[in-house]
Design brief:
- The chain has 376 residues and is α+β, with helices and mostly antiparallel strands.
- The protein folds into two domains: 257 residues, Aminopeptidase (3-Layer(aba) Sandwich), CATH 3.40.630; 113 residues, Alpha-Beta Plaits, CATH 3.30.70.
- It has ten helices and 17 strands.
- The strands form four sheets. Strands 1-2-4-3-5-17-6-16 form an eight-stranded mixed beta sheet, covered by helices on one side. Strands 8, 10, 12, 13 and 14 form a five-stranded antiparallel beta sheet that branches. Strands 7-15 form a two-stranded antiparallel sheet.
- Strand 3, helix 3 and strand 4 form a beta-alpha-beta unit.
- The longest helix has 21 residues.
- Bound molecules: ligand L5K734KM.
- The site of the ligand CC(=O)N[C@@H](CCC[C@H](N)C(=O)O)C(=O)O has 12 residues, from strand 8.
């Protein structure tokens, strides 16, 4: 397929305009179903699950099933790209490339719906990757058990790599994650009478600073961890001392042991704030994601395939502190994930992320070739 005539660029743009939050992707699911409706039906079977879709391409002489996963949700970010096809949903944006992930999956699916390989293919359009996580409940369904793949693959766009790059590694690729929500409740009051109150804005600010010491002083420097507080809310108006504050963040670690240790330290610091600022606190860890652990043999084989059989430039990447609930999909089924170069001066989760759409054709061609190699 020539990149110039790639219809999946237009599909990506249409999906880009309708970003929706996890498990709220009704328009997105409707768009995907309408597209699939127009594919030849002889070789495909479809089941919807919540806002996601399972779709099996029946192989001509199946010995196994190969899974392909694409995530479908957007993020609560106000888009600032100025693109003609920018988001039509106020305050929502496909700022993590899932619009590209879906259009690439449709491109691959369209090819195999008309040219089925010997083996079965299972396409999974998965909701809620950004949270609270759709992969784990999706693999716990009867649909997944019935059509169970023997291996699964997935990609994620990478704004930092040029188009034409694929980057991955055998073994650990993405971190363990845990969301983090901390609520602080004290005694509010008049801005001019701080001595009669317990100010939760001051307590929250102190806690944010203390949390950074966990990574700096409690985690082995040769291991890696991140604590990010992405949102702080507190108080009501400028001249009232805040009764409540809330921190919302995420924890990332490369090992399960570090996650446990980081949480213990966070709990100790929160307890300290409770005593020091005379307030009540609560911690909620929200959703947690299993690390993405690429199957060594399959990933090495894929890396050799990319090097020998395609015009794509392969890079052996390092681990990243990003999280992906796809990790659950390949925790008990062999599989791997790879980065797809989609150069953009602004990175993932940025309001100006503008991936290079030429990456769509590169991915469709490369994955079709790889699946032809594995499934025939
Ligand atoms: C690829 C990517 O950016 N994934 C997200 C996953 C977020 C999981 C969860 N909501 C959390 O924040 O812990 C990421 O932020 O890495």
């Amino acid at each position: 397929m020539s990149i110039m005539n790639n219809p999946y660029v237009q599909i990506r743009r249409e999906l880009h305009q309708i970003p929706e939050r996890g498990f709220d992707e009704t328009k997105t699911q409707g768009y995907l179903l309408q597209y699939i409706q127009n594919l030849p039906k002889e070789h495909i079977e479809l089941k919807t699950w919540k806002t996601g879709i399972f779709l099996r391409v029946q192989g001509t002489a199946p010995r196994k099933t190969i899974g392909y996963r694409a995530d479908i949700d957007g993020l609560p970010i106000t888009e600032e790209t100025g693109l003609s096809f920018k988001s039509l949903h106020e305050g929502m944006m496909h700022a993590c490339g899932h619009d590209l992930h879906m259009s690439i999956a449709l491109g691959i699916l369209t090819h195999f719906a008309t040219h089925p390989p010997k083996d079965n293919l299972l396409f999974m359009f998965q909701p809620a990757e950004e949270g609270p996580g759709g992969a784990l409940p999706m693999i716990q369904t009867d649909f997944f058990t019935q059509w169970k793949p023997d291996m699964i693959i997935a990609l994620h766009i990478a704004p930092e790599y040029p188009v034409g790059t694929i980057a991955t590694k055998p073994g650990l690729l993405f971190a363990n994650t845990s969301e983090l929500f901390i609520d602080l409740t004290g005694l509010g009051g008049h801005a001019a009478y701080p001595h009669q109150t317990n100010d939760m804005v001051v307590a929250a600010c102190s806690l944010v600073t203390q949390l950074q010491s966990v990574v700096a002083r409690n985690v082995d420097p040769l291991d890696s961890a991140v604590i990010t507080i992405g949102k702080i809310t507190g108080g009501t108006v400028q001249n009232i001392i805040a009764e409540r504050a809330r921190l919302e963040g995420t924890i990332r670690t490369l090992s399960v042991e570090s996650m446990k240790k980081v949480k213990e330290r966070i709990e100790a610091l929160v307890q300290g704030v409770e005593i020091g600022y005379n307030c009540k606190t609560s911690i909620d860890y929200g959703s947690m994601y299993h690390q993405v652990d690429n199957d060594v043999k399959l990933t090495e084989e894929f890396m050799r395939f990319v090097t020998n059989e395609t015009n794509v430039n392969l890079i052996e990447s390092k681990e990243a502190m990003t999280g992906e609930d796809y990790g659950y999909m390949i925790a008990n089924t062999p599989g791997f994930m790879f980065w797809l170069g989609a150069e953009s001066p602004f990175g993932l989760h940025h309001s100006k992320l503008n991936p290079n759409e030429d990456a769509i054709g590169v991915a469709i061609n490369t994955i079709i070739s790889y699946l032809n190699f594995k499934a025939n």
